[in-house]
Amino acid sequence: MNILILGCGAREDIIREKLLANSANSAKRVFVETLSKQETIEFIANNSIELVIPSSEHYLCNGYTDHINKNAPECKVFGPSLLQSHLEANKNYSKILMKTHRLPNADYTFFQTKNQCSDYFNNYNVDPNKIVLKYSGLAKGKGVYLPNENNINSCIENVYNHGSEGVLIEERLFGTEVSIMAFCNGTHAYLMPQSQDFKRKCDNDLGLNTGGMGSICPVNILSLEECEQVNEYMNKIVTHTNYIGVLYAGIMKTSDGIQFLEFNCRFGDPEAQTLLNLLESNLLAIMLKCINQESLELVWKNEYASCVIYSNESYPEFAYPLSKLTYKNNLDKKIRIYKGSLTDNNESNGGRILSVVSNSSVSQYDSLINVYNNIHKIKFPGSYYRRDIGLNYLLQTKPRKYMPMAIMATNNGTSIGTLLENRETRNAIKIIFTNNTNGSIIQTALRYKIPLLVIDTKQINYESLTNILRQFRVKLLLLSGYMRIVPKILFDDFLTVNIHPSLLPLYANKMDLEVHRSVLEDKRKFSGCTIHEVTDNVDEGRILLQKQINIEHITSPEQLKSEIQTQEKQAIYEFVELINASNGIEHKYEVNIEEANNFVSELKTKLPAIGGF
Fold first, then answer.
1. CA 516/CA 191 separation, integer angstroms
2. What is the reported pTM?
3. How many C-beta neighbours within 10 Å does residue 240 have?
């Protein structure tokens, strides 16, 4: 079967990869093209195309499915008709359908013109903090505004700048968002695993709305009962419209239960990049069964997938001119790259350049750190990515038990402040080492009754120190302000981590104000801190967590240091929560089988009475 995918982004890249991977027929060809309606018909004829997948809203909401069915009836199409795609193209229509079928959703009012919308606010004393402005038509994921009393007029102006389709004023809901997608065969919606995408440009969900800066899958936001409710509601929409294709429901889980936010008529981007990497079933077979209105059985991998979008730092306002991508080192075999705004010559030509994806059979956290330890190996001018994709979701799981840990501090222990303020994490600290006889870390240890040992770092016997840590059954060793490399005996026995005041690998081997001065001299827009594993090579251990902030307002190294120290406190606390809630990192001990066998043989010789080895 020859297949044409209409589109040009990372979503289309993963669909193509999945179709080719599922194929037993090596002669099958999968084309990915951006074409007009007439060009599509010509392409179908010239290349003997048997299946077309209009994968983006541009094609679906402009009637490509209907046009192909009419002008190339021998060719199958996986995707909704023009009328069915109004679920995404016309939010007012979608809300009417939700109300008709009693789907739980926010109250709303629709206004066709800007004047009507402004009059509504002026005449009815509406609190801007309790509403959401949504453009009714297509806006590439950027048509939603959360106004306040200071920016309501500019929000109205911006939302109407998208076009003339009108605007919805919705009740603002509060809760946790989750993406639910389904393969639909005209009568039933077959749900995919729950996924979560991250729309805001900047860490901590700050900045402008984007088409998506990353995604994780699966998540467990909705209970089994809530998923069944969603499935029942989506079945109503599918049956009413005879919908065929992928139907995407944006859901908010609130204190009052589930609420439908919107429908889209295709795979989400970047959710497709994680979902399809978990799909075990044959994607082509699924699509053909949907078209033929047959029932489905879906099989998913028992794994986790994470996607981080590598973009231009100016996205979504505007895109940089063409710039060449370079690969510093070989990427890990677990990493998959899907091209977004990237030419065949590896030049960036848009906002979202790449999707960097990793699967893991261990944990969601493991899949994320796989991405973050590889994405920085790809270089291009003005590159940017969020460092906290999935973090808030992972932090929702509170550890049942904390592993015993120790602190080695050469200063006042400023960076462990938040760790000490929390009773659970504080109680897991079994001993503190310091070489600072006058530091406030001593008073801190006394106040919280944590065993303390003052050491001379110039004469320290690390073998003795290691034995002390073993006596306390320590598994995690945190270095705070430690400016020198520790010996291998420590990080061989314990998961040993350090915090660096930059976004490693930037400014590795630099310390303190030298780092912050370099960041400002290089006119960086973002900086932060990095928790990383300690290895033989300074600042080159595996990245475990990063905190990133915008620093365009900062003018001095001292001011930047103060800002980063605040991030360091939170980073250490969050890392301890993550490492204890997740089985994502197991410290690997080296085992020498030959030495072990020799040891057993020696025991047998010297203590023959034991004999049970």
1. 48
2. 0.91
3. 12
